[in-house]
């Protein structure tokens, strides 16, 4: 699906594509959700008005992912996967906020406020923003050399 976005966007029925993407947001598999988050970020940049029209259905599973707590008997790998999904969701929210008039969408603002007023999520947000800052300034390229 991601390849379709990149190679033949003009041939896609966007709302049908978004239907399938919404299913991916609820998929039980970690990898599918991560890919869906990447597609959503891409789609927010390519077709912002169509994404804006579907924010009500998109934001609900995103908020659910942010509020998911690991099981009490979860192993480190499961906890790490949950954290990775939360970071990905926060990247999606940051991309959605860039859409013109997105701040008028109550569902999106509810998710934004959940992030702002939850200590754990606020820390993840700050880390995601720092990582993005390093990417733009070239610090990551210097760190990997």
Automatic annotation (TrEMBL):
<feature type="domain" description="TATA-binding protein interacting (TIP20)">
    <location>
        <begin position="1"/>
        <end position="115"/>
    </location>
</feature>
<dbReference type="InterPro" id="IPR016024">
    <property type="entry name" value="ARM-type_fold"/>
</dbReference>
<dbReference type="InterPro" id="IPR011989">
    <property type="entry name" value="ARM-like"/>
</dbReference>
<dbReference type="InterPro" id="IPR039852">
    <property type="entry name" value="CAND1/CAND2"/>
</dbReference>
<dbReference type="GO" id="GO:0010265">
    <property type="term" value="P:SCF complex assembly"/>
</dbReference>
<protein>
    <submittedName>
        <fullName>TIP120 domain-containing protein</fullName>
    </submittedName>
</protein>
<keyword id="KW-0833">Ubl conjugation pathway</keyword>
<keyword id="KW-0677">Repeat</keyword>
<comment type="similarity">
    <text>Belongs to the CAND family.</text>
</comment>
<dbReference type="InterPro" id="IPR013932">
    <property type="entry name" value="TATA-bd_TIP120"/>
</dbReference>
<dbReference type="Pfam" id="PF08623">
    <property type="entry name" value="TIP120"/>
</dbReference>
């Amino acid at each position: 699906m991601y390849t379709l976005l990149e190679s033949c966007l003009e041939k896609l029925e966007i709302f049908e594509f978004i239907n399938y993407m919404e299913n991916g947001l609820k998929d039980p598999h970690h990898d599918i959700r991560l890919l869906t988050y990447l597609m959503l970020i891409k789609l927010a940049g390519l077709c912002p008005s169509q994404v804006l029209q579907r924010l009500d259905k998109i934001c609900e599973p995103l908020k659910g992912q942010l509020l998911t707590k690991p099981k009490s008997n979860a192993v480190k790998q499961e906890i790490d996967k949950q954290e990775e999904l939360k970071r990905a969701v926060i990247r999606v929210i940051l991309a959605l906020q860039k859409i013109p008039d997105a701040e008028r969408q109550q569902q999106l603002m509810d998710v934004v406020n959940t992030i702002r007023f939850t200590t754990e999520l606020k820390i993840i947000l700050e880390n995601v923003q720092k990582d993005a800052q390093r990417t733009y300034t070239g610090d990551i390229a210097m760190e990997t050399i």
